[in-house]
Amino acid sequence: MSSETGVRAVVEVLAKALADRPDDVRVTESQHKQVTLIELFVSPQDIAKLIGRQGRTAAALRTLASTAGEREGKQVTLEIRESR
Predict the structure, then answer these.
(1) Average pLDDT for the chain
(2) pTM of the predicted protein model
(3) Which end of the chain is more exposed for a tag (fewer CB within 10 A), N or C?
């Protein structure tokens, strides 16, 4: 199980560091065929902050998640969602 939590842990640590409401950050991981889907849920107040200007922060998070996944031999997709 430790191999499947590496990417998730990276995303969670970074998202909590960026968010104004780190307690509202939630990260889930699921497998869909050959792709690992990481879903990052943040409070409505933090969604813009995590997406960033012109999506730069979101793009950087996706790159980091993808790179971390490659190190574990996985193809990773990161989705950022607003928690309700």
Answers:
(1) 92
(2) 0.88
(3) N
